[in-house]
Every structure is written in structure tokens, then in C-alpha cells.
Specification:
The complex is a heterodimer of chains A (235) and B (407). Chain A has 7 helices and 10 strands. Chain A is an alpha/beta fold. The longest helix of chain A has 18 residues. The model of chain A has no long low-confidence stretch (mean pLDDT 91). In chain B, α9 packs parallel to α12. The chains are: A alpha/beta (235), B alpha+beta (407).
């Protein structure tokens, strides 16, 4: 359960103040698949940083599973990210020259999970994300873009998070691979009930979610369910 | 994060860029190796200097006559005075404690003639206790006995070099032959074991005769040219030196110690002086080596800073998936420490090999001390901590957002 109330974020560089978010409020229930849409410079990245517990808002409250994380310290935020949030980035951010399995295991290493258990969990996540077992021991730089993003999704999934945050996950992929990745998100949402927030600036990508939040100039301008949801047929 | 995972992360990070890790380590390796080798060589030099001083006899005190003084007249130079008597030596032997031996000596330089050869050499008139006190051994025949001294026998013990000069190199059966010193005939009763030259005097180019004989036929007076005293230990030698000084001052009726007509040289203090000289050199060598270690450390810092910049996105990702500041800090610090520690390990081995090589080639008996190895290890780990701290801190302080955005 995500509850955001009147979130504001102001950046200060020297004497110049810039308000990236001017008071945003919304609620996302467990198991929802929501897209946050907006043009570049709209404040959606700032919102994503706050939702992802990467940054504190200047004012407002952010309740994640009943806890107000808006005033948490850096280390407390790190714990929230470790336990409750899984990230999927546009630029994948896998460790280079490292096996697929090791990449997925990484969040569990910081959690201190035993090697045997974390390997099992990582394999399960990879299968859920749709990667064949044959690729598990490949190095991350030997994979295709679609495969890399599936590894990243598996990594986001492995700590069993309350929320998966995908920041332009298809930005570096061709349209066919994008479909596969979006299909994976839909499957995780539908079959496993995962809460997924998809951040994008493209309408047709956003339409893969059930609900779309439009952000413009730091404000929430529209909050509606998707008119015609684009459902990816599974291969 | 578990320690085993930390080591795994460190290993993969360092092995990802083997050439750079290796070159950075090389700086530490050279630094540590030179510290080890230089201190080993310095220590070896110190040992060899004290060993060569010790070879003239351990814990030795040399009592020499002072300068002969006549009021207002010219000084005859130190050692020229006729001030030491057999009575002085007897008094030292009976009244000074913590000594194991007293040797009376009357030395001079004379022309020596054998059948068909002659040489000019050092003649030492002495007695039986010379052997243990001055660390001399007899190779062939016997040394001067107390009986020879009491009788004033005209017997001579030759050093091996003098034997070679008078009878030909390596000649055996010299014992029993006759030589002439200042026109007097002496029978050769023994040959000493070769000792090698030490300092300015060559113990091998010497003829030993009873000191009573030397007084009667060579110096023509009742004085001694030197009294050697052996102390029981190097610690006791200073006390013995003071006792001898005050005893002789009393015997010679001298109240002002600065006007003493004799000198007591303490071998321990000579060794201490020599050691302090070689010690200074060791420190100097170690300091120069230490500078190269410092440069190696700066190399580590340089590499770690480059690594942090290169891996900014990775740091961002690690933070995004839950790594705390201290996790990142630890990871980079351990990387730096690992570099210096492996470098230190290889450096110790290399330094040991260099010391071994120096010893093997016979340049010097280098001695690697355990303390220098422990020191080198702790210094290298310390360098890792010091020079790894700043880059690691910088990595830990990166904001995850900025780090993820970094291109």
C-alpha cells in the first residue's frame, strides 16, 4: 500500500530554487499495475526517486506499508530499498563481467542470506522473469538487451518486494523486445499479484498498465484507468 | 554483507582489471621489498662490523700508556709514555672484579732473520693468557707457557704470515727452527691459526715471545706497552673500565683524571659507536625505502579514485538495491587493503630473496628480522587503510540518484 500526501520537492543550486514537485497526492493499492506518465522535465523522475526511497521529499508524507518513510535517514532508506523495493532501470545496470546468477543474487548478499538459499531464490526469480536456465551462468555482457532486462527484472523480484519500480524499462529496447518485457511485467502483476509502477513518457507503453497517472510541471494532472489496456499475449 | 561475500566481491573487482591491479601492487611490492632488503642489509652490516671488532677478543679493555709529558716540553704522543708496569697488571688482576683475564704485553717492531730470509714485523712480548683473551689459537706446536715467562726463555710463536715470510709459503715443520731477532737467537715453538686482518693490525703477521724476554732484550726496561683485560660480560666491562681507571690513578698518584698517564679503551664502547654509525645508515636506507613505499601508497589511492569514478554507476546500483554507506565504504576499503596486503606479501618474499641473494653472492651476511617482516605487513595494511580511506569515503558518500545518472 502506497499513500502519498502533498509531496513537494524543491532543489536548490546556490540561490536558484527549482520546484520539481509541487504537491502530489495519490494512493496505490497492493497488486496494482500503475504507469506514471509525463514528458521529460515534468517531475516524474523526482517522483520516482521519492517512491523508490532514493530521496526524501522536501515536505509531505509517504506511507509505504503503513510506515512514513519521508523523513527516514539514508541508512533507513537503504533498508527500505533492500526489503520493500525492486528497481528496473532503463540502462539495466547489471554488474559487468559477472554471471547472471551473481547479478540476481546481489540484493540477497546485502541482506545476508545464506549462499544456498539465495541461489535457489535467484533461480526461481530468473525463471519467473522468463530467462532460460541455460543462461544462468553466462556473463552479463554476453546477453541480448531483452535478456539483460529480464535479468534486471529477476533481480528486482528476488527480495520479494512490496513494490517493483520500473524506470523507462523499455527505453533502450526495440519494440519487439519491449513487448516481451512489458508482457513479463503483466504476468508478474496478474499471476503473482506484484505491485508495479512503470515510469514512462510514451503513451503506448503506459497503456500496458491498468491505471495511468499523468504528471506535468510537478503536479498530478490526471489519474485514470487505462481505456483500452494493451495486453501482451504470452509466447 | 558477510565477510566471505566481501572477499568474493573484492576478488572479482581486483581481477576484473588485472593489469592495473598488478601495476598498482608493484608500487607496494617494490616499497616493501626495499624496506625489507635495506634493513636486512643494514642489519647485516651492523653484525659484520661488531663481529670484526669482537674478533680481536670479546669484552676487551685495552689499557695503554698515555702521552709522555715533560713540563713545557713536546709531547711524545699517546702510547709513548713509560707508565704501565707489571705491578699495575698484577694489581688489576688481584683487585678488579668482573674480569676473567689480564695479559701483559711489550710490543715493538724489529727486523727478524731466518736462514735465507728476513722480514720486519711486530714482536709482541706476552704470556699464556693472550690466547683466550685475544681470541688466538695455536695451529702447530705450543704457545708461550708461564714457565717460559718466568725463565725469560728465548722462544717465539709465529703468526702464519710471518712464517710464510721467513720460511716460505705453507712450509711445515717450522717448529724447532731458529730465528734471530735483534741479533738474539730464538727457537720457534709454535704457529698460530690464521685469523685474517682486522683493522690496522694484522694478527697473522706477528711474532709472540715471552714478555720478560722482550723487556730484557728488546725494550730494555721494566715497563709494559699494553695491558689487555677481559671483562666477564659486555655489561660488566664499563664497571671494570672505571675500576681499572681509579686503581691506576691511585697507583700512579694522579688526582686529576684528565692528566692520567694511561688510557683505558673499552671494546664495548667501540662496538656501540660502530653500531650507531651502521644503525644510522640502516635508518637512512629504510627511510629511502619508506619513501618508495609512500609513493606506492599514493599509487593505490590514485587507482582507487579512478576505480570509484569508473564504477560510479555500480555504486549507485548497489545503493539502490539496499547497500548502506558502510557497506560501500567497507567494500572499497577492503579492496585497497587487499591490494596493499598482497603487495606486502609479495614484497616480503621479494625482499627476502634480495637479502638471500646478497648473502649468497657473498657481499654481506644480510639478516631478515621477523620484526621487519611484521612491520612491513602492518605498514602495508596501514597504507591500504590510509590511502584507501578517502576513495572509499568518496564512494560511500555518493548519492544513489547521482550515481545512477552518471554517464
Amino acid at each position: 500500500m502506497i499513500e502519498i500526501k502533498d509531496i513537494k520537492k524543491t532543489y536548490k543550486t546556490g540561490d536558484v530554487e527549482f520546484q520539481a514537485l509541487g504537491g502530489v497526492s495519490f494512493t496505490i493499492a497492493d497488486g496494482e499495475f500503475v504507469a506514471i506518465m509525463g514528458p521529460s522535465g515534468s517531475g516524474k523522475s523526482t517522483l520516482m526517486h521519492i517512491l523508490g526511497a532514493l530521496d526524501n521529499p522536501t515536505s509531505g508524507t509517504y506511507f509505504l506499508d503503513g510506515k512514513d518513510v519521508s523523513t527516514f535517514s539514508d541508512d533507513e532508506l537503504a533498508d527500505i530499498r533492500k526489503d520493500k523495493i525492486g528497481f528496473v532501470f532503463q540502462s539495466f545496470n547489471l554488474l559487468p563481467r559477472t554471471t547472471v546468477l551473481r547479478n540476481v543474487v546481489l540484493p540477497l548478499i546485502y541482506e545476508g542470506v545464506d549462499p544456498k538459499e539465495r541461489e535457489e531464490r535467484a533461480k526461481k526469480s530468473l525463471l519467473l522473469a522468463g530467462l532460460d536456465e541455460g543462461h544462468f551462468l553466462n556473463l552479463s555482457n554476453q546477453l541480448s538487451g531483452g535478456q539483460i532486462q529480464r535479468v534486471a527484472i529477476a533481480r528486482a523480484l528476488v527480495n520479494n518486494p512490496s513494490l517493483i519500480l520500473a524506470d523507462e524499462p523499455t527505453g533502450n529496447l526495440d519494440s519487439k523486445t519491449s513487448e516481451i518485457v512489458l508482457g513479463t511485467f503483466q504476468k508478474l502483476n496478474k499471476e503473482l499479484g506484484r505491485t508495479i509502477i512503470l515510469i514512462t513518457h510514451e503513451q503506448d507503453i503506459a497503456e500496458h498498465a491498468d491505471r495511468i497517472l499523468f504528471i506535468k510541471d510537478g503536479l498530478l494532472t490526471e489519474d485514470r484507468t487505462t481505456h483500452i489496456k494493451r495486453v501482451v499475449k504470452h509466447i | 554483507m558477510k565477510n566471505s561475500d566481501l572477499l568474493h566481491e573484492t576478488y572479482s573487482a581486483l581481477s576484473a582489471n588485472k593489469a592495473r591491479s598488478g601495476l598498482t601492487m608493484l608500487g607496494i611490492i617494490i616499497g616493501i621489498a626495499s624496506v625489507i632488503a635495506m634493513t636486512a642489509i643494514g642489519q647485516g652490516a651492523q653484525n659484520s662490523v661488531s663481529a670484526s671488532i669482537q674478533s680481536i677478543g670479546a669484552n676487551l679493555l685495552l689499557v695503554m700508556p698515555g702521552a709522555a709529558r715533560s713540563f713545557g716540553g713536546p709531547s711524545a704522543g699517546r702510547g709513548g709514555a713509560l707508565s704501565l708496569t707489571v705491578g699495575d697488571a698484577d694489581a688489576i688482576a688481584s683487585q678488579v672484579s668482573n674480569i676473567t683475564g689480564v695479559v701483559r704485553e711489550v710490543s715493538s717492531r724489529k727486523q727478524v732473520i731466518s736462514t735465507g730470509a728476513n722480514t720486519n714485523t711486530n714482536i709482541i712480548g706476552t704470556e699464556a693468557s693472550y690466547l683466550p683473551v685475544r681470541n688466538v689459537a695455536v695451529d702447530e706446536g705450543t704457545f708461550i707457557s708461564d714457565q717460559n715467562v718466568a725463565n725469560g726463555d728465548k722462544v717465539a710463536v709465529l703468526g702464519p704470515t710471518t712464517r710464510d715470510d721467513l720460511f716460505g709459503v705453507g712450509t711445515t715443520g717450522v717448529v724447532g727452527q731458529k730465528i734471530r731477532i735483534s741479533g738474539m737467537e730464538y727457537s720457534v715453538i709454535g704457529i698460530t691459526v690464521a685469523k685474517g686482518g682486522s683493522g690496522f693490525s694484522n694478527a697473522d703477521d706477528t711474532i709472540y715471545i715471552p714478555y720478560t724476554t722482550a723487556q730484557r732484550y728488546l725494550s730494555g726496561n721494566k715497563y709494559l706497552s699494553e695491558i689487555d683485560v677481559q671483562a666477564t660480560s659486555s655489561d660488566a666491562s664499563t664497571q671494570a673500565q672505571n675500576d681499572i681507571t681509579s686503581l691506576l690513578l691511585t697507583r700512579h698518584n694522579i688526582s686529576d683524571p684528565t692528566k692520567a698517564d694511561f688510557n683505558v679503551l673499552n671494546e664495548a664502547s667501540i662496538i656501540a659507536t660502530a653500531s650507531s654509525v651502521t644503525g644510522t645508515f640502516t635508518t637512512l636506507l629504510a627511510a629511502v625505502a619508506g619513501i618508495s613505499l609512500l609513493v606506492g601508497g599514493i599509487g593505490i589511492m590514485n587507482m582507487m579514485l579512478t576505480t570509484v569514478t569508473e564504477r560510479t554507476r555500480e555504486i549507485g546500483l548497489r545503493k539502490a538495491i539496499g547497500a548502506k554507506k558502510k557497506d560501500i565504504n567497507k567494500q572499497f576499503l577492503v579492496e585497497a587493503i587487499m591490494l596493499t596486503f598482497i603487495g606486502g606479501f609479495v614484497g616480503v618474499i621479494l625482499g627476502w630473496l634480495i637479502s638471500f641473494g646478497v648473502t649468497y653472492l657473498g657481499i654481506l651476511q644480510a639478516s631478515v628480522s621477523v620484526s621487519s617482516i611484521i612491520l612491513a605487513f602492518s605498514v602495508s595494511a596501514l597504507i591500504g587503510i590510509i590511502f584507501g580511506y578517502y576513495p572509499a569515503r568518496r564512494a560511500a558518500q555518493l548519492s544513489p540518484i547521482d550515481a545512477l545518472r552518471y554517464e
